[in-house]
Amino acid sequence: MAKTDTKIESANLSVTDKLKSLYKLQLIDSEIDRIKIMRGELPLEVQDLEDEIAGLETRVSNFDTETGNLEKQISLRENAKTEAQALIKKYTDQQNNVRNNREFDSLSKEIEFQSLEMELCDKKIKEHKAEIELKTQQIEESKIKLEERKKDLEVKKAELDSIISETRIDEEKLNKERETIATTIESRLLYAYSRIRNNVINKLAIVSIERDACGGCFNKIPPQRQLDIKSSRKIIPCEYCGRILVDPDILEK
Predict the structure, then answer these.
(1) 44-55 b/e with 16+ CB inside 10 Å = b?
(2) Greatest CA separation for the chain
(3) The pLDDT of residue 97 is above 90
């Protein structure tokens, strides 16, 4: 209820007071922007490093899983090879007791088939071992890169934490001031202010006249319009960039 009452009161403020509140809000937001600029690209760099580390950890995990599967395949192939060897011995022994050439030839074909099966197992085992060797190398490379990125992240986080700790008190104070001032501004004006701020590169929605020009886009302002702005009796936007114009001495009125 108190917040609603504040909004009702703000609607009854003079245009001068409304412009003062908007200009104060802009000054606070500009200071908050300055603090964020001090942090530079560090928050994004930290996020990028965290994403890269997560990706590398997933990659290492996938390689480990693939290596485990290949080792299982090697074990299966070795078992199949052992079984083929046992069958070859069995069929060779049976050849010594055959009753005719037909049985001998049939056993010879089985021996040949099992020999081919052994060759296939040897081939696959060799291929799987080569894959394991490659993946082991990739795992080692990924782990080295992962450690490097973790060290980079540690450094970047320390830098960011240092800057945040240096500016935290100021930022918290500014945010409280911003919240207080924002409650004194009509919703429609606050919306217009936010919309303008989001549409301009330098985030300046409220600017004063500087050297007879708009402090935002630097286009010249006609003398009569300057007088209207100086009077602070109505809200006047720049006809070129849309920013709200105020008298440089607005806060002293």
Answers:
(1) ebbeebeeebee
(2) 124
(3) no
CA 94/CA 120 separation, integer angstroms: 24
| Ranges of each domain in the chain | 2-39+186-252, 42-168
Q: Could you say which DSSP state residue 251 is in?
A: G
Q: Which of 168-172, 235-239, 244-248, 249-253 has the lowest mean pLDDT?
A: 249-253
- Quote the DSSP letter at residue 184: T
Q: Is the pLDDT of residue 173 over 50?
A: yes
Task: For residue 172, give both structure tokens.
Answer: 């918290």
Query: What percentage of the chain has pLDDT greater than the value 90?
Result: 78
Show Cβ contacts of residue 192 under 8 Å, excluding neighbours closer than 6 positions.
244
Looking at domain 42-168, does it have CATH number 1.20.1070?
no
Amino acid at 241: C
Rounded to the nearest 10°, the torsion over CA 213, 228, 193, 189 is 180
Spatial separation of the C-alpha atoms in residues 111 and 30, rounded to whole Å:
86
